[in-house]
Amino acid sequence: MYAVIRIRGTVNIAPRIETTLEIMNLRRTNNLSLWSEIPQSLKMIKKVKDYTTFGKINDETLKLLIEAKAKPLESEEKLDAKKVLADLKAGKTLRQAGVKNCFRMSPPRKGFERKGIKVAFVIGGALGERKEKINDLIKRMI
Questions:
Q1: CATH number for the domain including 78?
Q2: Is 116:123 a contact under the CB 8 Å cutoff?
């Protein structure tokens, strides 16, 4: 499962990319959404790589994320993190598990990487693929 976090804002974005970000539930900066590893999702993630950072989320971080930031689809419903995790491992989507696929995160403690939010992660910035290091960023944002 991929975690995608929007880093950059809305100024001077091409309409196609803005539409893709809206489809992915990334309407604001510091929003996070989870996507399965199917070809359609990966194409959308690659399309918005200049405005987001992404990587594979591990089970420990997913549990922390659901406990701290998950919102139920129904406002009166109470979330059980263990049940949601079991549903996700069984192959259900977040919507089928009763959780919204938009997590509103805080800005990361100690900030983003040294070169800022307009530079790729592989050369010292914050954008693009992080692989397993996305878990560290998510923990700093919870």
A1: 3.30.1390.20
A2: no
User: Does position 76 have pLDDT exceeding 90, yes or no?
Assistant: no
0.85 exceeded by pTM: yes
**What is the total count of domains within the chain?**
1
Q: Where are the beta strands (DSSP E) in the chain?
A: 2-6, 31-35, 52-56, 103-104, 128-129
Cα gap 120→127, rounded to integer Å = 5
CB 17 within 8 A of CB 24: no
More confident residue, 80 or 44: 44
Nearest C-alpha neighbor of 70 from the set 90, 41, 95: 95
Amino acid, res. 53 = T
**pLDDT (tens digit, 9 = 90+) per residue, 17-53?**
999 999 999 999 999 999 999 999 999 999 999 999 9
Kindly state the tokens that stand for 90. 């069984």
Q: What is the largest CA-CA distance in the chain?
A: 45
Range of the domain at 66: 2-141
* Spatial separation of the C-alpha atoms in residues 117 and 106, rounded to whole Å: 15
